[in-house]
Design goal:
2 copies of one chain form a homodimer.
Chain A: H1 9-16, E1 24-30, E2 37-43, E3 46-52, H2 62-74, E4 92-94, E5 97-103, H3 115-131, H4 145-155, H5 159-162, H6 166-180, E6 187-190, E7 199-202, E8 205-209, E9 216-219, H7 220-231, H8 241-252, H9 259-285, H10 298-310
Antiparallel strand pairs in A: 1-2, 2-3, 3-5, 4-5, 6-9, 7-8
C-alpha cells in the first residue's frame, strides 16, 4: 500500500497520448498494492488504473502477468483488462519503470469476510482455474516447496527471535513437506495470492479479482489451500468451519476436486501456511531502517500452521 | 501525501448511507494532502472525496473551512463543494475522526508552472478574494507576523545546524518585519497556502482550487505574496520576472491593487518567505524517528528571502 514513484504532469500527459484512451483529466496516486505504484486515472474516456512496476516485480515476468489478465478477461472473468498502446503493445515505460494501463474495477476488499463472501471466492477461484486452463504462458512458482528451504535458511536461527523454538518446529514441518509434497495433482494457472485485499465486492456480490503479480503454474488445489488459509480463519486464530464449507462448496460448484486433491488438502494447507509464514518471517527479520511499511506478522501463519498439523482429512476443512 | 486512517468496508458503507449520494462502489485511499486522510469514492451517483481530519487540523476550525468552501462554490469558484448529510449537517465522524465528503474535481497539479499557469493562478486568487469578501466566518491567521517569533524561538540556535549564521540573519529579518508589518491593508478571506499542489489544471486551463485548511482572514496582498513565492521562482532559486508579471497582471485583471498594497508588496513577500522558512525549519529540526515523510527544505525559502531583501518596489516583482 504505497505510491513509490512520483510522475510529473508533463510526463504523464505525453504517456497517456500513446494510448487511445482520450485526454487525461486527473491522476491520483492510490494506496493499493504493496509491490508497485498505482494511479487512478480519469480521462475523457473513463477511469483506468496506471501501474508502474517497481523493482520487486521482475521485468521478464510482465508479459506473463499482462497476457494472463488479457486471457482471463477475454474468458469473461472480471479482472483488470490491460489496455493496449496505440502501437498495439501492452507494456510501456514511464519515469524509468515498466508501466501498463488496465481498466478500472469497482468494488472494495472486505475486512471481515462472511461465509457468503467465502463461497463467492471459491466460485471465482474455480472460474479462474477453468478460464486459465488453455492459457499458453508458463511461469514456475518460485514460492512452492522448492523455494521454502532457501527462505528458511535465510531466516535461520533468527527465527527464534520471533518465537523461541520456531526454528526447530519449522525445520521439522519443512522436512515433512519436502518428503510428502505431491507433484502430480491437476495443475494450471493459479493466482497464488488471492487474499481479501485482492478480491473486490460490492455488497456480497464479487465484482473482481486483482493483483495477478504472483500468478504462476502450480496445482489448482494448492491455490484453494492458500484461500482457505487467507479467508477462513478468524482474528483469534480459530478456523471457521462454516466459511471453509462455503468456500469448498463454492469451488466445487464450478470444478469438482478429484480424489488425489481431496486426499492432499490437509498437506497443501500446511504448505500454504508455511509459505506465507516463511516470506513474512524473512521480511520481519529484514526490515530496513526507516522502512515505510510495517511487515506482516509471521506468527499469524504459524498459528494457522499449527491448526493444519492437526488436520487429517479434507473433512476437517468442511468438505462434505 | 498519506493515508493515515484505515477504514473498514462495513464502517464505510454505514457512513455513506448517512449521505444521499447513492451506494458506494469503490473507495481508494489517495496520496493527496499532507495533513489528512483522503479517499476517492465512487458511488452509484458519481465521484466524491472523503476526508478524515487528522490531528493537525483543529476540530473547532472545521466549520470555518467547510463553510468557506460552501460559500465559495456557491459564488461560482471551482473548489470542492461539501456534500451535506441526509440530516443537513456538513460534518460527520468516521473511524474516530471528524469527516466530510466533498465533490470530486478533475485536474492535476503542475510540476513546472508556465507563465500562463501563473496568470491563471493570479486571476483565481483575485476571484477567491472577491468571492470571500462577504463570507461571515472569521479565523485569525496564526501564521502571520505575531506567530513568527514563537516559531523562531522554537528553532532557536539550532537554526545554525541547517546553515551557519541562519539564526542571526533570521532574527534581523524578523525584527525588521515586526517593526514594519502593516495592519491596515485591505483584508478578507485568504487561502494562505495556494501552492502548485493545491491548484488543478487541465492543460493550461485552471480547473479548481483545493485544500482550504490554512484559510483565514488576513491582507489579500499577503496571499498574493505567498503565491509569488510559491509559483514564480525557478528551481535554481532565481525569480522569473515573466511569471511574476503574468501573476500580477492576472490578479489585477480581476481586482486592482491599491497604492498601499503596491507599496507593501516587497515587505509582504519577505514576510511570506520567512513564514514558510520558519515552519519548514521547525519541521526539519523536529523530524520524529521513523518519520514517513521527508520534511521540505527550509533553505529553499531562505534563498527566496534573500532575493526579497534586495527588492525595493513592486516593480522588482513585475508590476507594470
Amino acid at each position: 500500500m504505497a505510491v513509490y514513484t512520483d510522475v510529473s504532469d508533463d510526463e504523464l500527459t505525453a504517456f497517456i497520448n500513446t494510448y487511445a484512451i482520450g485526454d487525461v483529466l486527473s491522476a491520483k496516486g492510490i494506496a493499493e498494492g504493496v509491490e508497485n505504484s498505482n494511479y487512478l486515472l480519469h480521462t475523457t474516456e473513463g477511469f483506468y488504473i496506471l501501474t508502474l512496476y517497481e523493482k520487486r516485480v521482475r521485468e521478464e515476468d510482465l508479459p506473463f502477468f499482462i497476457g494472463l489478465m488479457q486471457h482471463l478477461a477475454q474468458k469473461g472473468l472480471t479482472c483488470p483488462q490491460p489496455v493496449p498502446l496505440r502501437s498495439g503493445e501492452m507494456l510501456s515505460t514511464l519515469a524509468g519503470r515498466k508501466a501498463a494501463i488496465v481498466t478500472f474495477l469497482d468494488g472494495m476488499g472486505v475486512k471481515r469476510p462472511s461465509a457468503r463472501h467465502c463461497q463467492a471466492v471459491g466460485e471465482a477461484l474455480a472460474q479462474l482455474h477453468a478460464a486459465g486452463a488453455d492459457f499458453k504462458g508458463h511461469r514456475v512458482n518460485a514460492l512452492s516447496v522448492a523455494g521454502w528451504r532457501p527462505l528458511f535458511e535465510q531466516a535461520g536461527h533468527r527465527a527464534d527471535e520471533v518465537l523461541p523454538g520456531l526454528y526447530d518446529m519449522t525445520r521439522e514441518v519443512l522436512e515433512g513437506l519436502e518428503t510428502q509434497w505431491p507433484d502430480d495433482l491437476p495443475s494450471g494457472v493459479i493466482h497464488a495470492d488471492l487474499f481479501p485485499d485482492n478480491v473486490f465486492f460490492i455488497g456480497e456480490r464479487l465484482s473482481g479479482l486483482i493483483d495477478f503479480y504472483f500468478a504462476c503454474n502450480d496445482a489448482w488445489a494448492y491455490d484453494l489451500a492458500i484461500c482457505l488459509n487467507a479467508w477462513c480463519f478468524e482474528q483469534d486464530g480459530s478456523y471457521n468451519m462454516t466459511k471453509g464449507q462455503a468456500m469448498l462448496a463454492g469451488y466445487q460448484s464450478i470444478r469438482a476436486l478429484g480424489p488425489a486433491e481431496i486426499e492432499a488438502l490437509p498437506l497443501l494447507c500446511r504448505g500454504a501456511a508455511l509459505r506465507f509464514m516463511l516470506t513474512r518471517l524473512v521480511d520481519w527479520l529484514n526490515v530496513p531502517a526507516g522502512a515505510l511499511v510495517r511487515p506482516k506478522d509471521p506468527l499469524e501463519y504459524f498459528r494457522k500452521l499449527r491448526f493444519h498439523l492437526r488436520g487429517e482429512s479434507a473433512r476437517d476443512y468442511g468438505l462434505s
